[in-house]
Amino acid sequence: DTAVSQTPKYLVTQMGNDKSIKCEQNLGHDTMYWYKQDSKKFLKIMFSYNNKELIINETVPNRFSPKSPDKAHLNLHINSLELGDSAVYFCASSQPWADTEAFFGQGTRLTVV
Amino acid sequence: AQSVTQLGSHVSVSEGALVLLRCNYSSSVPPYLFWYVQYPNQGLQLLLKYTSAATLVKGINGFEAEFKKSETSFHLTKPSAHMSDAAEYFCAVTGGNAGNMLTFGGGTRLMVKP
User: Fold this and answer.
1) Which residues are registered as beta bridge partners of B40?
2) In angstroms, rounded to a whole number, what is the distance separating the alpha carbons of residues A97 and A95?
3) Do B22 and B14 meet the contact criterion of CB atoms below 8 Å apart?
4) Which residues of B touch A99 (CB under 8 A)?
5) Chain B nearest-CA residue for A10
6) CA gap B2, A50 in Å, rounded
7) Chain B residue closest to A38 (CA)?
8) How far is B33 from chain A (nearest CA, A)?
9) Rounded (5°) CA angle A22-A25-A31
10) What is the C-alpha R_g of chain A?
11) pLDDT digits over A2-21, tens only?
12) Mutation for A interface: B102, B103, B109, most A CBs within 10 A
């Protein structure tokens, strides 16, 4: 059983489109995250979602919006895609304590053309 | 704010040689420190973590790391490199204002030569 799964694995789309990436975890964790990995492999937190409390990294454009229908799911919706949004997006989950391990999905490679 | 610096974006070793990947952190509170590994086209997998217990932490695949508060370091080592160790390695920190969100270093690509 995959602990953290995200779909799709690859996404190619045109500028200006709106797209969503889905994430599900079966670990019973209370907290889920979205991280962005750029072309230089640098990883940065985008969002943290815990018990309906959303913590947003202030550098994330408001075109990005996380949506959590329940504790096991955290989807990422992106409006008006730009070339600079091309990256690998990772979903992760953990318990809400700073000393616990985060489990990562396989990533979604988004290419905006 | 917390930060992590990984010295050396690329490290190359011969198979069987010592692996040393460097990580220095900056934190205003006692940190929790992690090493994650990323294989090509994969997600991140935890190698080991420091959570204020023993300063020498042993992880999976023969890796270990030592927390040195005086040097603000958490370097990753492995006595003998294997070809399968070739991957991207990330040091990360949590705690303080960041709570449970990971702040990553820039990553180090480990290459293992036969």
Assistant:
1) none
2) 6
3) no
4) 32, 49, 51-52, 94-95
5) B41
6) 21
7) B106
8) 8
9) 95
10) 13
11) 799 999 999 999 999 999 99
12) B102
User: Measuring CA to CA, which residue among A86, A94, A81 is closest to residue A40?
Assistant: A86
- Strands B87-94 and B103-104, how do they pair? antiparallel
pLDDT in tens, A77-102: 999 999 999 999 999 999 988 888 99
- Inter-residue contact A29 to A95 (CB < 8 Å): yes
Residues A20-65: pLDDT tens digits?
Answer: 999 999 999 999 999 999 999 999 999 999 877 888 887 899 999 9
Contact A43 B90 (CB under 8 A): yes
Query: Quick one: pLDDT band at residue B23, thresholds 50, 70, 90?
Result: very high
Helix ranges restricted to H, chain A: none
Residue A25, min C-alpha distance to chain B (Å): 14
CA distance A80 to chain B (A): 26
Tokens 């932490």, residue located:
B57
Q: In a 10 Å sphere around its CB, with 0-12 CB exposed, 13-18 middle and 19+ buried, how is residue A44 labelled?
A: middle
By a Cβ cutoff of 8 Å, what residues of chain A touch chain B?
4, 31, 33, 35, 40-45, 48, 55, 90, 92, 94-102, 104-107
Q: Distance from B11 to chain A by nearest Cα, in Å?
A: 15
Which amino acid is residue A97, in one-letter code?
A: W
CB B82 within 8 A of CB B73: no
CA dist., res. A71 & res. A19, Å (int): 22
